[in-house]
Every structure is written in C-alpha cells, then in structure tokens.
Amino acid sequence: MYKQRETGMYYEMGLRIGKHFKKEFSSIVGFPPNFSKEKLKLSLEFENEVERYTPELLEELHGIADGSEINYNILVANELTPYRLQPACLVMAISGEHTQSGLPILARNHEWQEDDSQYLTLCYTRPKNRLESFGFTFMTANMSRYGGINKAGVAISSTSTSFVNSGPGVMFNVATRWILDNCETTEEATVFLKKIPKTWGVAYLIIDKNNTIAKVEAHREKTKITYSEDGFGFVTLLFDSPDMEQYNQHDELTKLYYPRKEFLTHWFDQYKGKINTKTIIKALQDHEHSMCSHYSDGQVNYGICWSWIVKIGKADAHICAGPPCKNDFITHSIF
C-alpha cells in the first residue's frame, strides 16, 4: 500500500508525484505500457474531451509526465482511454438515520486482479483553491480516483456495467477525481455527470453530509439519475432502472447481480437503524450471495482487490487491502 500526499497547483502536484513515481514504476512488470500508434492517436480524442471538462487534471498529468520522464501521450492512453474488462465492483450508501453513529456511510468492494492490491494508493490531495479530499487509486494511475470523500462531505464511487458504444469522453476515474476536487453536494456531482460525454456504461453512487443519495446510471446513449427515498442505495454489475437495462452488456452477470440485490435488500431491512462498521464488513465478506467472489482464468486470480468504508463527518476510513474475507480492515486517518 502506498500513500500520496500532495497540495498546491495541479502541475506542481503532478511534478512531485512523477518524481516519486519514477523511483517506483521500474519495479512494476509491464509498465509503462507499450501502446500501439493507433491507440496513442485515438487517445488524443479522449484528451480533447478531458481538456474541455476537466482541464486542470491535464495540468497534473503533464506534471507527472515531466517528473517521471514517461511520455505524456502514454499517460494519456493509460489514464484517459477505455480498456476491456468485465463489469465489476459493488458500492453501497447508507444515510445517517440508519447508522448507529448517525453519520452517512459509503462502502465499496473493488473487484479486479487480487494481486494488484499491492498497488493500492491512498491519496491525500489538496489542490490550490479546490476541495481537500481522500481517495483511492492504483500506483500506476496517479491522477485517477476510483472513489473517495472530500472535505465538503461528498463521497462517491462507481461500478462498471457495459463497454459497448464507447466513444471519446471523460472516463469514470477522471470524473470521480474532478467531483472530489470541486463538488460540495450530491446535486452538484450529478449535474457534472449528466453533462459529460460518456466512454462506457458506469453506475455511480454518491452520498453527502446532508444524507442525499443519488444513483447515476451513465451511458453514452443516456444518463438516468435516481435519488434514494429510503436512505439506502447500491450499485453493482448492471444498470437496474427499467429504461437503462437495454444498455447492459452481459446477461450472465445476473447470476451475480440478483443474489447481491436480494441479500442487500434483506440486509438493509434487518439492520437499518443499527448499521455499523462490523455489519458492513460482514456484508462485504459474504460468499453465499456473491458479495465477495473469487475466480481464476488459470493464470490470474480475480476477486476483491481492496475494500473500504468511509463515514461522512468522521476523520478516518476502514480499509482492507485484498479480499475482505482473508484480510483485515485497518483504520487510516483521512483528514
């Protein structure tokens, strides 16, 4: 596990990140990636969209390139453009009225290659004139965020649902970072997600200090925003709104999605009003209903790469590097 602490102008932060990264990336097999000329050329179309909607993040990426001495176009292709994988991950949000602490909670299981948990990076970020935040990324994706919480009390993460109809747009990892840097409410975050061009299907879950929970089912063809009426929400694997189901990619994912949905619905009914860290961890560890799943293609072990729980209004997070069924949650300070 790595920790990245940066404050200042975006380029300055990137430059320091890049210099530190230069000392580390030589130990990572296959990095920097060897992208084709076609891929590098295509990535410029995605860079144009990022420059249009989140230009400051390109300043940071330029700094990372200069500090690490990695070609900037390679970093663009690595962080700003789509790649192929199977829809994965799970995120849940609980309003404070249903928790023992009275604080809103966001929790996540990040499904990916289990061994990549070694590259988990905790990001403590304070851009000049922007919001301070705590987020999660891989060491090889320094500018990106795969979830987190900011000082204004907005917590966000997402799950992948589809990779069809991809086109130039703003990747979810970039959109998440921009929201953490800029948005003070759930509503502000949804406005941004509504307007940006999408690269593939992503379901975001957002909760803020006001206990406002929004599910944003974002696809290149359509974006649907649904606010929770009962103080609970989750996203995983598939779009579940009736008018978004047509954009799901894998029918076979229903064998994972529906057990998770059934379990979480029952779990919330059982524990609402008394939900705490222990009950959430137990849910994230559950194998019977595929909350925590594992499989191998004969070469790579896939499962939960990391898990985390944040409470809005509390200055620490509970983080597990690796599958939560086999590893401990450790408390880390976030602000």
Description:
- The chain is an alpha+beta fold.
- The protein has two domains: 8-80, no CATH class; 90-333, Penicillin V Acylase, Chain A (4-Layer Sandwich).
- The protein contains eight helices and 15 strands.
- It has helices spanning 10-24, 37-53, 55-68, 72-80, 172-182, 186-195, 254-271, 277-285, and strands spanning 2-8, 90-94, 105-113, 120-127, 133-138, 148-150, 154-162, 201-208, 213-218, 223-227, 232-236, 295-296, 301-311, 316-321, 330-333.
- The strands form two sheets. Strands 1-4-5-6-7-8-9-10 form an eight-stranded mixed beta sheet, covered by helices on one side. Strands 2, 3, 11, 12, 13, 14 and 15 form a seven-stranded antiparallel beta sheet that branches.
- α2 (37-53) packs across α3 (55-68) and α2 (37-53) crosses α4.
- The longest helix has 18 residues, at 254-271.
- The relative contact order is 0.15.
Q: In a few lines, what is going on in this structure?
A:
The protein has 335 residues and is an alpha+beta fold. The protein has helices spanning 10-24, 37-53, 55-68, 72-80, 172-182, 186-195, 254-271, 277-285, and strands spanning 2-8, 90-94, 105-113, 120-127, 133-138, 148-150, 154-162, 201-208, 213-218, 223-227, 232-236, 295-296, 301-311, 316-321, 330-333.
